[in-house]
Amino acid sequence: MSTAFTVREISANQTRSLRHRVLWPHIEQEEDCVIDIDQREDAIHLGTFDGDKLISVGSLFAMNSPRLSHAMQYRLRAMATDPDYRGRDAGRVLIEHAVQLLRKKNIDVLWCDARLHATGFYERLGFSRFEDVYQVRNIGPHQFMWVEIK
Question: What CATH number is given for 6-148 in this structure?
Fold first, then answer.
């Protein structure tokens, strides 16, 4: 496993290539791989790098879910890792960086709608999940997952 990966804040535009390739190949143009809240003031876009190569992305937004009782919540959206780097800790270091960053902001919990095939990844990082499975249009089955930030 590599420990040489670095994580830093990136622009929303820098997330588009991995979002398109990994998450949303059904969208015709890479430029259209945006989230309607990408430019919000509270948005934090993170990238994991192997040297200069962007290998994983994730976007964080101040957003409360009615499924959780925590006062201060952030949501993880559009987490994507280059398939050549899966299983090599690129995603793990991004999530760990996100948790450290949110801890400094006194956030209580980070939550996401996880693709069903990714729930094991999040569980290994300490996330809990509700058992119900729901469909996201054009994407597939998901489960609600969260991790408390202590």
Answer: 3.40.630.30
